[in-house]
Amino acid sequence: MSDFQLEKKIDLASELAVAWLANPNTRADHADVAAFLKAVHEMIDQLSQGIGGGGGRAEVPPYVDPAESLASKDHIISLIDGKPYKALRRHLARHGLSPDDYRRKFGLTPDYPMVAENYSRERRELANKTWIDRKVDQDTRRAAENAKPAKISRSRGAAAR
Predict the structure, then answer these.
(1) CATH number of 63-145
(2) 76 versus 38: which is more confidently predicted?
(3) Mean pLDDT of the chain, nearest integer
């Protein structure tokens, strides 16, 4: 490889790292920057040699450890971008992934959750409450339908006395 090619690869890797750091949502210390720069440089090197993962799509290391992504019961941290989500399904769709693809891409178990624990519990409670309310309404309606109408007295004399 010539010095010119090496210099172009280093320039490209540093431009990508600067763009990554320019994102206001990126919180990184010097070790993260160095690791990111190294990973980008290696990926550029692999892609330029034609070694990259099939079809030009390289496997990317996860943003966070999978165990760390489940640390909070209020949200799941995406391994794609490191941001917290209550449910991952829409986020994955934006990235062209199904839950199975996501699990396969990051080597996760088939039972890895796609919804935060507390969010799932809240939705379950809401569904149960709605079902119970609906059931009570149906029971009340059935009771009203089955009840015999009260007899209405037709004589005026009884009311006047």
Answers:
(1) 1.10.10.1550
(2) 76
(3) 79
Q: Which of 84, 74, 82, 70 is nearest to 113 (CA)?
A: 70
Determine the Cα–Cα distance for residues 26 and 52; give it in Å rounded to an integer: 26
C-alpha distances (whole Å) from 120 to each of 45, 98, 113, 117 are 43, 19, 10, 5
CB atoms within 10 A of CB 49: 9
Domain spans of the chain, in order of start: 1-61, 63-145
Please, what is the angle between helix 3-22 and helix 30-49, to 10°?
A: 130
> pLDDT, tens digit, for every residue of 24-45?
787 777 788 778 878 887 887 7
Q: Helix, strand, coil proportions of the chain in percent (round to 5)? A: 60, 5, 35
Q: Is the CB of residue 101 less than 8 Å from the CB of residue 93?
A: no
Please compute the mean of the pLDDT values over residues 110-114 and round it to a whole number: 92
